[in-house]
Each structure stands twice: as structure tokens, then as C-alpha cells.
Amino acid sequence: MSAEIGLPDDGASTPSNSDKPATSGRRAFLGFLAAPALPAAIVCVIGMALHDPHPLWGTVLIAIFAYSAAFCFGVPAYFILRGRGVTRCSAYVWVGAAIGAAMGLSFSLMVFFSHVAAGWPAVVAGGAGMAANAVRVIGFGAIGGALSSAMFWLVAIRKPERRV
User: Which pairs with CB-CB distance under 8 Å and at least 24 residues apart come from 78-87?
Assistant: First the structure.
């Protein structure tokens, strides 16, 4: 079936294909579609649990950053790791955490420069608060990236158990 749409088969149906890589194009595609939604879903659930009146604003913002990170940095990282034959979950988690932290840093820099555009008094007035928020955003980005990449690994990289 996957040959009909141009994707390689993962070999799960035939035991003679055991030398094929564990990742199929279809599984990687599904991983890249599903994994970036995880941090956004977590924020939405937490927002609803805390009775946030607008939990979808944070969810949409995080989804935009997560999918941007996945397609701009995650896809090249996946091809680099796959090209080197890396299949360990920890490698994917560390790469995902680094990508997530970089996205958190980029968001924090956007906020900082928007304050700069408003004038230096706004930067001085919000200095300590902005620094604390930046640390939280970078940390959440790293955790979200690690969770997303762990989910990607489960969907796309982990070898499925063969049932006898």
C-alpha cells in the first residue's frame, strides 16, 4: 500500500525485510504530524485545569512555534541522525530539548526586542521580570522539545514488537 503513494514500507508485514531500517517514510510523517502537538496539548489541558478563561491562546502560540521548530530544525536533525544510524531515544530527546530551548530563546528575544522597540524605559522597568520569564520560557521549550522528540521516537524510530 505504501508503494502506491511513494513511501517505503517499514517491513513489518514480511519477516524477510528485517535488514530494512526501522523508520518508514509513513511513520516519520506521522511522527512529524503528531509530536509537535504534544506541548500545545499539555498547555491546553493545564490551562483548562487552572480555569484559564482563554487556554487556546497559549495553545495556538505554542503550536505555531512547535510545528515551525519541527519542520525547520527537526526534519534536518532527523535526517542527520538517521544518516548516522542513531536510533537511541536519548539522542532524539537531547536534540529535541536543544531545539525547544532554542525556540524558547527566540521567543524570549522577540519579547525583549518588542520592549526595546517600545523604548528603553520599558526594558529597564521589566528587566528582572523579563529575565525570569525568559528562563521559564526556555525551560518550557526544552521540556516541550524533549517530550515531542520522545513521542516522535516512539512513533517513527522505535522498532515495533513482532508478534509470533
Answer: 78/28, 78/32, 78/152, 78/156, 82/21, 82/23, 87/22, 87/157
Q: What are residue 132's phi and psi, to 5 degrees?
A: -65, -40
Whether the CB-CB separation of 29 and 7 falls below 8 Å is answered with: yes
Q: How far is it, in rounded angstroms, from Cα 106 to Cα 122?
A: 19
End-to-end CA distance of the chain: 23
- Cell 525570569: give the residue: 132
Cell digits for 124? Answer: 529597564
Domain ranges across the chain? 21-157
Per-residue pLDDT tens digits for 7-66: 444 444 444 444 445 457 889 999 999 999 999 999 888 888 888 887 788 888 889 989
Q: State the amino acid at position 126 in one-letter form.
A: G
Residue 117, burial from CB neighbour count under 10 angstroms (0-12, 13-18, 19+): exposed
Torsion of CA 16, 18, 23, 24, to 10 degrees: 0
